[in-house]
Design a protein that fits this description.
The chain has 71 residues and is mainly α. It has helices at residues 3-26, 38-70; strands at 30-31, 34-35. Helices cover 80% and strands 6% of the residues. Strand 1 (30-31) and strand 2 (34-35) form a beta hairpin.
Amino acid sequence: MNKWSELLLGLVLLIGAILVAWYSSVYSWTLFGKNFNFLNAAWIFLKGGIFWFVVMIGLLFIMLGISDLKD
């Protein structure tokens, strides 16, 4: 694929994902009693990612501090 088709495909996928998330949160998408709110799921996933990122940074600083104590 050339660079323009990759850019166009990436833009289409990005806008498509944003629209699906937005419309699933605005309108009630239910199937067999299960609500498909993709925006809420994405928000929960992002918050979990931020949590684990902060935890890993904390562990990194603890390991660096222990390493410095040995010297």
